[in-house]
What we know:
The first copy, chain A, is α+β, with helices and mostly antiparallel strands and 80 residues long.
Amino acid sequence: xxxxxxxxxxxxxxxxxxxxxxxxxxxxLGYEEVSSVRIGxxxxxxxxxxxxxxxxxxxxxxxxxxxxxxxxxxxRTGEA
Amino acid sequence: xxxxxxxxxxxxxxxxxxxxxxxxxxxxLGYEEVSSVRIGxxxxxxxxxxxxxxxxxxxxxxxxxxxxxxxxxxxRTGEA
Lengths: 80, 80
């Protein structure tokens, strides 16, 4: 089994609704030291041994991320 | 400015609806090498210089994660 972690974030300049909501909520709770919150997705995927990163990239482009507004980073985290 | 990254994931044994949906969708698209998909949150937060990790942990417990079903990991990623 091979494991990959994928970090999906909004592209620079794209409005991030959940991040903006959390930012305001933290301010309302009194956390005035917070200047920015961005919320993306953290995906952990297990695939068959020998699956190349290219294949995982294809899954991101087709399903796991929205290439119009999101960018992503893939990390191979292990072979188990 | 200090930066932290927070990885929020469902606790072991807790059903992960978005992960299960992605898993089935990938199977339908023909990605038979996929055996598991778990989808959590990837949070990037910027706070004032000198903010201790403890304070970020408090924000997670109060707002950013649901301690009943989620666990999280905090990483300090920089001071800028």
